[in-house]
Amino acid sequence: PPPPPPLPRIYKPCFVCQDKSSGYHYGVSACEGCKGFFRRSIQKNMVYTCHRDKNCIINKVTRNRCQYCRLQKCFEVGMSKESVRNDRNKKKKDVPKPECSESYIVTPEVEELIEKVRKAHQETFPALCQLGKYTTKNSSEQRVSLDIDLWDKFSELSTKCIIKTVEFAKQLPGFTTLTIADQITLLKAACLDILDLEQPDRVDKLQEPLLEALKVYVRKRRPNRPHMFPKMLMKITDLRSISAKAAAG
C-alpha cells in the first residue's frame, strides 16, 4: 500500500498577536497579518506613534489599534529587518515587478456584504446636513446671537448624527445578534472610544469580514494606490486616540 500522506505542519501561534500562524516569517512563527504588517513597516521605513504609554497589549483583537506597539512587539519576539530586506532584494532579482502586485477578486459573498453596507449607509445618511451660511459682518449683538444659533445648529446636527449612526449600525450584518450591552458599547466607541466588551471574540469575528470587504473594495476602486487601505486604518487609529483624549479631558 502507498505510504500515508505526511501530516500537515503545525506551527506555534503567532508570536506577536497569538493568532493562527501561517509559518515562519522573518525568523519567527507569525500570522499573515503580522507578517504583512512587519514587511510593509520595514520596506517603507514607517514611523508610528503611540498615543498612550508605549506599552499597549497586542493580541489578535487589539493588534490594529496601536501600530507603534505592534511593531515593537515584532522586534521583541525576534522578527528580523535584514530578512525583509534580503527577501525584497531576492524578489527584485528573480521576478520582474508586475504593474499590480496583488489581484483582488470580489466573491459573491463579499459583493453582497459591500452592497448591504452601502445600502445601509445610503438609507441612513442620504445627504450631509446643512449648517447654512453665516456671516460675521454685523454688530457684536448680532454676532452673539449668530454664535448661539450656530451652536444650536451644531447640537441639533450632533443629535441627528448619533441617531443615524444607531440606524446604520442596526443594518450591518450581525450587529443585532450581539448582546445589547455590546451593541451599546460599540455605539459609544464610535464617539468616545469606550470599549469594554462582554464578547470581544464575537465582535472580532463580525469585524473581520467587514474589514476584508473594505480592503477589497478600496483596492478594486483604487488599484494604483495600494497603500490607501493601510492609511485608512492609520487614520481610524488616530481618530480613536483623539476621541479618547477628548473623553478623558
Automatic annotation (TrEMBL):
<keyword id="KW-0479">Metal-binding</keyword>
<dbReference type="InterPro" id="IPR003078">
    <property type="entry name" value="Retinoic_acid_rcpt"/>
</dbReference>
<dbReference type="GO" id="GO:0000978">
    <property type="term" value="F:RNA polymerase II cis-regulatory region sequence-specific DNA binding"/>
</dbReference>
<keyword id="KW-0539">Nucleus</keyword>
<keyword id="KW-0804">Transcription</keyword>
<dbReference type="InterPro" id="IPR047159">
    <property type="entry name" value="NR_DBD_RAR"/>
</dbReference>
<keyword id="KW-0862">Zinc</keyword>
<dbReference type="GO" id="GO:0048384">
    <property type="term" value="P:retinoic acid receptor signaling pathway"/>
</dbReference>
<dbReference type="GO" id="GO:0005634">
    <property type="term" value="C:nucleus"/>
</dbReference>
<dbReference type="InterPro" id="IPR035500">
    <property type="entry name" value="NHR-like_dom_sf"/>
</dbReference>
<keyword id="KW-0238">DNA-binding</keyword>
<dbReference type="InterPro" id="IPR001723">
    <property type="entry name" value="Nuclear_hrmn_rcpt"/>
</dbReference>
<keyword id="KW-0805">Transcription regulation</keyword>
<dbReference type="Pfam" id="PF00105">
    <property type="entry name" value="zf-C4"/>
</dbReference>
<keyword id="KW-0863">Zinc-finger</keyword>
<dbReference type="Pfam" id="PF00104">
    <property type="entry name" value="Hormone_recep"/>
</dbReference>
<feature type="domain" description="NR LBD">
    <location>
        <begin position="109"/>
        <end position="249"/>
    </location>
</feature>
<dbReference type="InterPro" id="IPR000536">
    <property type="entry name" value="Nucl_hrmn_rcpt_lig-bd"/>
</dbReference>
<dbReference type="GO" id="GO:0035259">
    <property type="term" value="F:nuclear glucocorticoid receptor binding"/>
</dbReference>
<feature type="domain" description="Nuclear receptor">
    <location>
        <begin position="11"/>
        <end position="86"/>
    </location>
</feature>
<comment type="similarity">
    <text>Belongs to the nuclear hormone receptor family. NR1 subfamily.</text>
</comment>
<dbReference type="InterPro" id="IPR001628">
    <property type="entry name" value="Znf_hrmn_rcpt"/>
</dbReference>
<dbReference type="GO" id="GO:0004879">
    <property type="term" value="F:nuclear receptor activity"/>
</dbReference>
<keyword id="KW-0675">Receptor</keyword>
<dbReference type="InterPro" id="IPR013088">
    <property type="entry name" value="Znf_NHR/GATA"/>
</dbReference>
<dbReference type="GO" id="GO:0005667">
    <property type="term" value="C:transcription regulator complex"/>
</dbReference>
<protein>
    <submittedName>
        <fullName>Retinoic acid receptor, alpha</fullName>
    </submittedName>
</protein>
<dbReference type="GO" id="GO:0008270">
    <property type="term" value="F:zinc ion binding"/>
</dbReference>
<dbReference type="GO" id="GO:0071376">
    <property type="term" value="P:cellular response to corticotropin-releasing hormone stimulus"/>
</dbReference>
